[in-house]
Amino acid sequence: SKLTNLGHLEMTWRSRVRFHPLLVRILHKSRLRYYGKPEKKMDMPYQAYFEVADGSGMMSMVLWNSLCPEWYHSMKVGTVLLLDKYTIKTSYPFKTQPTPGDSQMKRFATIEISLNVRDPPTEISIIPEEMVKPEWGLPEVKYRFITRSELDDLPNNHSCDVIGLVTFVGRAERARKREHSEDFWLYRWAHAIDGTSDQPFILELFATSQPDVFEHIHPMTYLVCTQMRVIQDLTENPSRTVYLTTSNESQIFITGWHKGQPYTKDAKVKNFIQWTKLQSEADQIKKTVIGGYYPFPRPPDSFLKY
User: Please, which domain of life does this record's source organism belong to (predicted)?
Assistant: First the structure.
C-alpha cells in the first residue's frame, strides 16, 4: 500500500482527515499510566506513550484505553509497526521527553500519533524482525551505555543506560506521590558492579510497568537499566554520592529477559559479558546482600554536621 512518513505528516496533517499507513520502529516506551477518577465512568482509563521513528525522524505515539491491555506488552523497544486509521493531534506539552540514543535524529515535537479503539478504530500490525527490509530505512535502536568509571564525571540529570552484576537488592519500599495523598510510588535500591571501578552503581529502581522483572531482581543477575537519570548530590557534602534513578521511559531487564533485545549488540554490553566470564561466581556470591533497610543518601555521622 501507499505509505507516508513522519516528516510528510508534520507538513500536511492540518489539510487531511485520512492519512496513509505508517511504518515505524519503537525507540522508547513509557510506563503505563492509569488516569481513572471515581466520578468518571470509563472502562479502561489507561494511556502509554511511545517514541517511534522512521527515516525522516522521531515522533510521539499514544496508545489509549482498552488498546493498552491488548497491545502494551507486545510493543517492545525495537518493534516495527504498520499503523493505519490513526489520528494526529497537537502534542501534549507537559509530557516527559526521553533522551534519544542518536542525537542527530530530527524530532517532530508539535504533533503526536493517537491510537484509539474507535473514531476511527486504529489498525495495528507488528512486523516480525526477520521480515523488516533494509530499504525501508528504519533507524536502529541506539543506546547510551556508560561504565561505572565514567559515572562520577557526568552532570546531574544526564540520561544514560547501564549494565551490571547485581550485588545488593533492597526490599520494596513505598513513598507518597504527594503529601497527604493515598497514592504511593513503589521502589527498591540495588547495587550493580561492572568491573571498571571499586564502587558499584547505586540504583533507585521505581516499579515500572514490568512487575515480573521488578519483583525478581536478585543478586548475581545481569541487570540492564535504560533511560536512567544521574542524581548528583549538589550540596557541599565532601563525601557526595552519585546514584541513578529511573525515568518515565526506563526499561529494566534481568537474566532470562536479555535474548533478542537490541542492546545485546552494544560494544559496552559485550565488554561487560567478557568481564563476567573472568569472574569467580563463588567469590562474587560471598559479597552479595539481599533485603534489609537501606538509608540513602546516608545522613552525616554527627548531629553537628546534620
Answer: Eukaryota
Was domain 6-136 assigned CATH 3.30.70.20?
Answer: no
Cα atoms in the 13 Å half-sphere on the side-chain side of 209 = 19
pLDDT tens digits, residue range 2-37? 899 999 999 999 888 789 999 999 999 999 999 888
Domain boundaries, the chain: 6-136, 148-305
Output the DSSP codes for 187-230. EEEEEEE-SS-SSPEEEEEE--S-HHHHTT--TT-EEEEEEEEE
Note whether 6-136 and 148-305 share their fold. yes
Instruction: Identify the helix (H) or strand (E) that includes residue 49.
Output: strand 46-54
Any idea which architecture 148-305 has in CATH?
A: Beta Barrel (2.40)
Annotate 275-288 with DSSP letters as a single string. HHHTS-HHHHHHT-
Average pLDDT over residues 182-190: 90
Neighbours of 61 (CB within 10 A): 22
**Residues 6+ away with beta carbon under 8 Å from 294:** 168, 170, 189
Collapsing DSSP states into helix, strand and coil, what is residue 111?
strand
Q: Is residue 279 scored above 60 in pLDDT?
A: yes
- What radius of gyration, in Å, describes the C-alpha atoms of the chain? 21
Residues 6+ apart with CB under 8 A from 150: 196
Place 103 in a pLDDT band, splitting at 50, 70 and 90.
confident
Check: CB of residue 47 under 8 Å from CB of residue 68: yes
pLDDT value of residue 295: 82
pLDDT at 293: 83
Q: Are the beta carbons of 27 and 52 closer than 8 angstroms?
A: yes
Q: Provide the percentage of residues in the chain whose pLDDT is more than 90.
A: 75
Cβ count within 10 A of residue 226: 28
